[in-house]
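Form 7-S
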Amino acid sequence: MPDNLPLDFPAYPRLPGHQLLSLDGPDAAAFAHAQFSSDVTALPLRHWQWSAWLNAKGRTIAVFQLLRVDPEQVLLVLADGDADAIASQLQRFVFRRKVKVAVRQDLGVAGSFAAPEAASGAAIAVDGETLELDLGSDALPRTLRIGAVHGAALPDDAAFALAWRQADLRHGLPRLDAGQREQWTPQQLGLDRLNGYSVKKGCYPGQEIVARTHFLGKAKRALQLLRVADGTASGAQVQQNGGAIGSIASVAGDLALAVLPLEIAADPLSVDGIEAVHLPLLDGLAR
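Output:
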C-alpha cells in the first residue's frame, strides 16, 4: 500500500487505541495462516475477516481484523493496541520465512456511524491511499477507514470512542484489556458468532484445544451482553443467588460482555452488588 498520500477523514474521528501491524513478504499469508485462528489462505485478496492469536493452551491473546491487502501483505487492525508486544512475540516464530513483521505507526484508523460508500461485508474498498471497511450491520451501520498519517494527529473524541466500543460489545465483539488477555478460549468469547476461528484448516497455536472443545461439545460457557453500573471493571464477578457464576470480560460504560454458563436460572444477576440486566446481542458482524 503506498505511503505518500495524506489521510483525509472528514467527519471520521480517530479511534484511539487502535493500532496496525503488517506482515509483508512472499510468505505473509502462509505465516499468518500458521499463527492465527482464521483460515487466512482461503481469504480472497482485498477482503477481511475476524481472527485471533491464541497461546498454546488455546487462550486468546488478541482478537483483531485481518486484511489481505495484496498477495504479499497482511494487515492486522488491533482495536485493543499492544502492537509492539505482539509484533515482538510474532517475530520469534518467523524463522526462515520470507516475512517482515512491522508496527505501522504511519497508518491511522478512523470510523463513522454511517454506511460505507463502497465497502460491503468482507470486501475492502480501496480509494487511492485509503482502505474502507464495512464494520457494521443492518441494525447499526459503521465504516472503518485506514490511511497514512501526516502532520498533526487528529484529536481524539472520547464520547465517540466510547460509543464505538459499545457498538463492538453490542455485536458480541470482545474488547480485551491487559488483564483479560490469555484468560478465555475463542468459544468462551463467542468468536464463532464472528467466524473468528477455524476447526478445519490445520495447526495453529491452541488449535488442538479449540478443535477438541468444538467436536466434543465441551463448551460450557459463552459471552452474554449485560447492562451494568457505569464504572464496572473487567474481571468483576457476576453473581446469582449469592454465588459467582461468571465474570466480566469487556466493559464499555454501562455495557459489559460477561462469560457465563450456557444454561443459567432466570433469577436476577448482579455485579458488585448492583443488578445486571441481560440484553440481546446484535447479529450481522460476522465476516
